[in-house]
Specification:
263 residues; mainly alpha; globular; 62% helix
Length: 263
């Protein structure tokens, strides 16, 4: 947990590793940011203060999301936005906070479909260094083609109908690939729980301001076990790591979904 607490101190309001003497903590891994509190202060003393007081001592200590989930959400945000500057920090923090290498591997795979291949490849480049330094080998990662979870035929039929209504005959290729591999394969892979798969999906959508698909995926997330309080806290995390405008675009959608769900 020590590394988790220090890895939060990165420039991702961003915050950098901040030792009390103003120097980078020598115990941080090589992947950690070299920026110290003093170095940030040479450009923005206010940013150094907000990073310490608001992000580290405020946001990351809020109980509405577990530290593990907060790390997973933050990694998803950075991957989705292609922001690799401090991604290694947060991968390290996620690993120390309870996210497994298998779950991180699956998160990057999943986000290739929701944030694009190039963003996933950028994340792979960062993660492979972290994995190598920790001795995480390929034989400890998810299989390329594992046995899949059983599909919910009723839900899948409803999803296909919705896609058909949305696209018509405009893009048959998109409709085909949305079925297979996305919902008939990726979503059924067993090494990331459905709840966490939904969590990184809504984090990605919120982070990039893609709220048109958010209501459907948020309802799916709530059905998969995410609580309403946790969903609201994802929006809070989005504000700091993807900006207030994206958070305020997502917030009303979350409110509408929650208000329409049966008690």
């Amino acid at each position: 947990m020590k590394l988790l607490s220090t890895s939060i101190l990165t420039v991702s309001l961003g915050t950098a590793a901040m030792a009390q003497d103003g120097q980078s903590d020598p115990e941080l891994p090589r992947s950690a940011s070299s920026l110290s509190q003093t170095e940030i202060g040479t450009v923005s003393p206010a940013l150094a203060r907000y990073g310490r007081d608001t992000v580290v001592e405020g946001l990351w200590k809020r109980p509405q999301l577990s530290r593990r989930d907060r790390s997973l959400v933050t990694v998803a945000i950075l991957v989705a936005r292609g922001q690799t500057f401090d991604l290694a920090h947060h991968i390290e923090g996620a690993l120390d906070g309870g996210v497994t290498p298998v779950e991180l591997s699956e998160t990057i795979t999943h986000l290739a479909f929701y944030a694009g291949w190039s963003n996933a490849m950028a994340a792979v480049d960062v993660a492979r260094t972290v994995f190598a330094e920790r001795g995480i080998a390929a034989d400890g990662l998810p299989a390329a083609s594992p046995d899949l979870r059983q599909i919910d035929e009723r839900a899948e039929a409803a999803r296909k109908a919705s896609v058909g209504q949305l696209l018509g005959t405009a893009s048959p290729g998109l409709a085909e690939f949305t079925t297979d591999p996305l919902f008939a394969d990726v979503w059924l892979r067993p090494d990331l729980d459905p709840r966490d798969r939904s969590l990184v999906t809504i984090s990605s959508l919120m982070a990039n301001g893609q709220v048109a698909q958010l209501a459907g995926h948020l309802n799916r997330a709530l059905d998969n076990g995410l609580t309403e309080e946790e969903a609201g806290e994802v929006v809070t995390q989005i504000a700091f790591y993807a900006g207030w405008p994206n958070a305020f675009s997502a917030g009303p959608v979350v409110r509408e979904v929650v208000e329409k769900r049966p008690n």
